[in-house]
Design brief:
138 residues; Alpha-Beta Plaits
Length: 138
C-alpha cells in the first residue's frame, strides 16, 4: 500500500462510521464530523474523528481518535438540580463503535483500540468518550 496521510486515515474512519450510522448499526441524534467540523454549540450526540500522528516508516504507523459527544442529563439528586454524564448513551454508542472496529478486515491495514477514556466538558454540559486507535499500514 502507498504511504497514507493523516487526512487519508481521517477519511477512512469517517466513511466507515458514516456507513454504520446510515445502516443503523450506530444510532446517534447528531452527525459524524472531522474534528474541526463539529458545529459550535451542538447539543446532539455527535462523533468526531481525527488523526494525531502518521509516520512514514515501513510499516507505517498512526494514531487516531474517535470522540463521542453526548449531552449530560439534567437531574435532581436529593432535591438539587445538576448535570451528570449520560453513561448509558456513552456506553451504547461507544460499544457499537468498538464492535464495528473489531469486525473490520481491511486490506493492508491493521487497527486496534489502544485506549478508551471519558472526558468532561462542564462548560457545555457534555461528556465525551474518547476511543484511541493505533494503526499498522503495510
Amino acid at each position: 500500500m502507498k504511504k497514507v496521510s493523516s487526512i487519508d486515515i481521517d477519511d477512512l474512519l469517517y466513511e466507515l462510521l458514516k456507513a454504520a450510522v446510515t445502516a443503523g448499526e450506530i444510532e446517534i441524534s447528531g452527525g459524524i464530523y472531522n474534528e474541526d467540523d463539529r458545529p459550535d454549540g451542538s447539543s446532539k450526540e455527535d462523533i468526531t474523528v481525527n488523526t494525531i500522528a502518521a509516520d512514514h516508516d515501513k510499516p507505517q504507523t498512526a494514531t487516531s481518535n474517535i470522540n463521542i459527544y453526548v449531552p449530560d442529563l439534567y437531574l435532581k439528586i436529593k432535591g438539587v438540580a445538576q448535570y451528570k454524564k449520560n453513561k448509558e448513551r456513552l456506553r451504547d454508542i461507544g460499544d457499537s463503535i468498538t464492535y464495528l472496529l473489531d469486525a473490520q478486515n481491511l486490506d493492508d491495514l491493521e487497527m486496534w483500540i489502544e485506549a478508551d477514556t471519558l472526558l468532561a466538558f462542564p462548560d457545555i454540559h457534555q461528556h465525551s468518550r474518547n476511543i484511541r486507535i493505533k494503526w499498522n499500514i503495510h
